[in-house]
Specification:
alpha/beta, three-stranded mixed β-sheet, Rossmann fold, homodimer
Chain lengths: 342, 342
């Protein structure tokens, strides 16, 4: 699935790897690439209903990974789990903007307290482990210039962005002060097979895919002219594995991104075109979304391109085609037990 | 004590003001200015031994303020205390760099969890309260250019800096999203009567003052060429009160600072000169300090100067003279029960 398959096999064959949020969209995709590379993979996930974990995400690799259902806030089990691991892909997180505003303390516990606990545990019990943290473009808030590079000020627009900012910085600090091997990737909109499609909690593209496949219209907020960049999950997996394997990444923060920048209205049209059917409509911003909307965003990702040779290789149309095909086949495992859209 | 006394009297006379960290160095100085301005002042302080609270700090205004001994982590008492207040000067915090590394979770609880709880409580029970948060230059980490303005990236070098960064941003976010009246000041090295002098937990100037008055040498780390700026506490009080009273400050972050920039070696010489006696010596950086040292720092504080008319008015030599005079008279109340220097 990942682009640099042979390279990943060289680097991860036989390695012991722990993935938090391992039953989630990106975590399970990392797991798939790693078992194909010959790694011994343990997935940690608490399967909180509102989050991204879904056992179906590993239906094709279930007997090749170890699954440990537990919560990263549970310091004692994390202490056991991180020991004797070579790598930690630290992808567990509360990611919903809106949930972080209605329940800021849960967000704080997952994105700050648990992250600090994981780092303290690794420092005490496994200080040589390599840790790659999944951070987010959300830290930048409303861009002051485009494309946004890593020198842009961090001005988060919700509690989730503030807590993720602290979580990311704990990782970098533990490199700077204790010499631990840590790195962080600031992900932009990631999409692909395995993403949460029940609702818009993880990405609006999820509910778009579900709606277009269900014959429902795609709802685009505002005038639909907000521009964004998108990464297909295989490219993100590739970035995570490259970052994990490269010592030059230690202590670094890298943007991910794509040269394909789309206005949301155009993106909706592309989804419909790739699907071969569907409709989209512009609707006014819900008030609670408007206040945290950031307008246009797309990243300058030249830092990781130059440092690690990463690039976004999967064109948006192709990635959407794969995604729609996946949910056409497996959708029932994802949109059952749907909850009220937040 | 504050510079704009008449202005403060106009604005705060009769106002109900809560000060967290109210028995600390800056909190008690704010309290003094406010009771002189005719405000009804309540001080919240938990008197944690290692922190800055000291009942002697209010010996001259004890019968003009209400003292409530409690902890900002105690959400229930905070909920009671913030109600019916007009202003909150939110100065409680864990400020020790080193303690934040040895006990990161206490720092997280005080500087993140409690701050978020205070804001949530105000939002629910007193959304019109004006909140001024004491932030710190420490958020910037090692300066990439000088003087450091508010556009400088935040790159904290210790857990305390990360947690204070989150604490500051919660305040700004609650303005941006909920329209609450909040503002933050990024304080630089603040000194004056009432500062902790038992040890270097709050500022190295504290232990310098104690040592020079005790006939002990002043220890300057490294080559002593690190340059810093310093604010006398009366100027900081002035900035806090101006910020509290001015609606234009809502949602803003302002640096404090001074045009008087001193190398630490020169500062030691000035302390000795103002004191009329004393010695200083250069000693190597302790390892745990070296790793979090930031080199030169001084602020560009033109933003608050332009917006609110604030300036640092007390010259360093004069401020040090006042400080030394205070501790010559009252030192016994500050350096008794001294703890091991961290």
């Amino acid at each position: 699935m990942a682009v640099h398959e042979q390279r990943h096999a060289r680097e991860y064959s036989g390695a012991r790897v722990l993935i938090t949020g391992g039953l989630g969209f990106i975590g399970s995709s990392v797991a798939r690439a790693l078992v194909n590379a010959g790694a011994q993979v343990t997935l940690v996930d608490s399967l909180i209903t509102a989050y991204g974990g879904n056992l179906f995400n590993i239906h094709d690799i279930r007997d090749r990974v170890r699954v440990n259902i537990s919560d990263v806030r549970d310091a004692s089990s994390m202490k056991y789990l991180v020991q004797s691991q070579d790598y930690l892909f630290n992808l567990a997180g509360q990611t919903s903007h809106l949930d972080s505003m209605t329940d800021p303390f849960t967000d704080l516990n997952i994105n700050c307290v648990a992250q600090l606990a994981i780092l303290e545990t690794c420092r005490a019990h496994n200080p040589r482990i390599k840790i790659v943290y999944a951070s987010t473009r959300q830290l930048y808030g409303k861009p002051q210039y485009l494309p946004v590079d890593e020198r842009h000020l961090l001005q988060p627009v919700d509690v989730n962005g503030i807590n993720k900012m602290a979580g990311e910085w704990y990782h970098i600090l533990y490199h700077n002060v204790y010499g631990m091997q840590t790195a962080a990737l600031r992900l932009t909109n990631t999409y692909g097979p395995g993403m949460r499609v029940k609702d818009a909690r993880q990405t609006f593209l999820g509910i778009w895919v579900k709606n277009v496949l269900s014959g429902l219209p795609i709802d685009v907020y505002g005038d639909g002219l907000q521009r964004r960049d998108f990464n297909y999950v295989a490219d993100v997996v590739d970035a995570l594995l490259l970052t994990g394997a490269d010592e030059r990444a230690n202590g670094q923060v890298y943007n991910l991104g794509s040269d394909e920048v789309y206005a949301l209205k155009e993106l909706a049209e592309l989804v419909i075109q790739v699907n071969g059917a569907g409709t989209a409509r512009l609707i006014p911003f819900p008030a609670e979304r408007k206040v945290i909307d950031i307008g246009d965003y797309y990243a300058d990702f030249s830092k990781i391109k130059t440092a690690l040779g990463w690039d976004a290789r999967v064109p948006l149309a192709e990635g959407l085609r794969e995604t729609l095909a996946y949910y056409r086949e497996h959708g029932a495992h994802y949109w059952e037990q749907s909850q009220a859209t937040p």
